[in-house]
Amino acid sequence: MRHLMSPMDFDTNELDRLFDLATDIENNPAKYAHKCDGRILATCFYEPSTRTRLSFESAMLRLGGKVIGFSDANSSSAAKGESVSDTIRIISAYADICAMRHLKEGAPMVASQKSLIPVINAGDGGHQHPTQTLTDLLTIRNMKGHLDNFTIGLCGDLKFGRTVHSLIKALSRYENIRFIFISPEELRVPDYIIELLNEKKLPYKEVIRLEDEIANLDILYMTRVQKERFFNEEDYVRLKDFYVLNTDKLSLAKKDMLILHPLPRVNEIDVEVDDDPRAAYFKQARYGVYVRMALILTLLELC
Ligand code: CP
Q: Is the dihedral of CA 134, 135, 138, 140 positive or negative?
């Protein structure tokens, strides 16, 4: 039995197979409409979500399966003090696969150690968000045609943004990727990520101003400042609008630069950018359904 805790749990060949499957699902949905007949997905979300939970649920329903779960820790027995280890033992009797989001880093990993069914980390605190990374990689592969040889700028909250941590780790395995980290001093990429890049001798640069680097980017990955991870409101208010991508700044960028964002967006991308052909974040969210369908089939060994 296999779980997904980190994007590194799949090697690049396995990722290629997963993305090929996701693409086939997108092109031939009828072929997959009953692959999960009789199977149940549990979505155990201890933290808020729109995309991840609903795309998982949509994925399972489109595969012919059914869905159970909770979207709020307070509507589960976590509110009475039940541990994730006990909860997953129970869920193992009710479902065939579980997607879990938790505010505590490592909670899905703890659950996986007691689980009798595959567990998918759907985001754990400020740590990892592997299925967002699968979505991001599929989007890049489909829209750029390759997963190597590009310069990517990651902009915003690089400290608490779990999507950024997972994406950097995943991209560190592809050839000739140059990372530009664009953040205020207080929200720089954690040291453990920098150490990984140094160990692999991968090129990266840390800068504060988006305008200084936007012209050099093939991909701009914008992120929201993660309000829920701040210790005080004052710091959040000071940093929340540090970056706002608007059409003026975009005029400095390459004509084919891809703009990605895991969403939700707050103010960091002006809505006027949405109509620009380089804005791919809504398409990116749609790819999330296909890649999660492919992931469910892979972990349930149905493909
Ligand atoms: N991208 C993402 O994780 O969005 P949600 O928090 O809405 O699931």
A: negative
Q: Select the CATH number that applies to the domain covering 131-284 from these four: 3.40.50.1370, 3.90.1150.10, 3.40.50.1820, 3.40.190.10.
A: 3.40.50.1370
Q: What's residue 232's pLDDT?
A: 87
Of 23, 51, 144, 229, which one is the catalytic site residue?
51
CATH annotation of 7-128+288-299: 3.40.50.1370
CB-defined site of ligand 1, < 6 Å: 49-52, 123, 129, 132, 262-264
pTM: 0.96
User: 163 CA distance to ligand 1 centroid (A)?
Assistant: 9
Q: What is the C-alpha to C-alpha distance for residues 62 and 68, in angstroms, rounded to an integer?
A: 15
Atom 1, ligand 1: residue with shortest CA distance: 262
pLDDT single digits (tens) 259-279: 999 999 999 999 999 999 999
Q: Taking a C-beta distance cutoff of 8 angstroms, is the pair 166, 128 a contact?
A: yes
